[in-house]
């Protein structure tokens, strides 16, 4: 839930602070790209194209790394990279081109969602909500139709994930009223807490 809240938080941040671009929501970026092209907004279109490319690059990197990881802690390295990117982005002024700001965030968002892609053997996405909402609704319908308690638990899980994403986006929007571009430092702090908790959990499980 915390990782998913981060996904919503960063998308709201880039949308409000960086020209209406989504770091992770590439479906939205494709739509915005089509608008930019019809309005001849080439700088805006280029930012969205680069966000798409860097997102794809992030997915590819983690997919390759999954075949060669040498430690149970490999996902922590991705979270630390994401934390470092957020720290740096918070120092960059509005005058800095979005072309230099959004793609690195798209890269780490893609790495995050590819590295953390399952909960209790159920696939999910921590930087989008459409698929999670669909799965929640299907599970809820199956529960209502057949009174399958397992489907009920799955529905609750997915609705919690959707709520986490929405909550992260809402908190981000409110904090930006006071902190502006520095708001992303809040994400860096949350990621630090996630890293500490996840490392502790892995240490208890594997002991190395």
TrEMBL record:
Q: Which residues cross the membrane?
A: 45-65, 72-92, 155-175, 181-199
Q: Pfam family example for this protein? A: DUF1275
Q: Which UniProt keywords apply?
A: Membrane, Transmembrane, Transmembrane helix
**Does Transmembrane count among this protein's keywords?**
yes
Entry-linked InterPro entries: DUF1275
Protein name per its UniProtKB record: DUF1275 family protein
According to its UniProt entry, this protein's organism is Secundilactobacillus paracollinoides
Q: What is the lineage of its organism?
A: Bacteria, Bacillati, Bacillota, Bacilli, Lactobacillales
């Amino acid at each position: 839930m915390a990782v998913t809240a981060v996904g919503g938080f960063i998308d709201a941040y880039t949308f409000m602070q960086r020209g209406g671009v989504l770091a992770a929501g590439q479906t939205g970026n494709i739509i915005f790209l089509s608008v930019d092209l019809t309005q001849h907004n080439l700088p805006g279109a280029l930012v969205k194209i680069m966000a798409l490319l860097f997102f794809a690059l992030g997915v590819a990197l983690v997919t390759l790394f999954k075949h060669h990881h040498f430690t149970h802690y490999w996902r922590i390295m991705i979270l630390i990279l994401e934390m470092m990117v957020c720290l740096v982005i918070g120092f960059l002024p509005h005058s800095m081109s979005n072309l230099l700001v959004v793609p690195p965030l798209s890269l780490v968002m893609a790495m995050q969602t590819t590295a953390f892609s399952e909960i209790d053997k159920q696939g999910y996405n921590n930087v989008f909500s459409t698929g999670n909402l669909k799965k929640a609704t299907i599970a809820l319908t199956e529960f209502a139709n057949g009174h399958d308690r397992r489907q009920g638990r799955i529905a609750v899980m997915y609705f919690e994930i959707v709520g986490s994403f929405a909550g992260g986006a809402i908190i981000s929007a409110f904090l930006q009223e006071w902190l502006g571009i520095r708001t992303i430092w809040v994400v860096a702090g949350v990621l630090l807490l996630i890293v500490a908790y996840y490392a502790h959990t892995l240490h208890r499980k594997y002991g190395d």
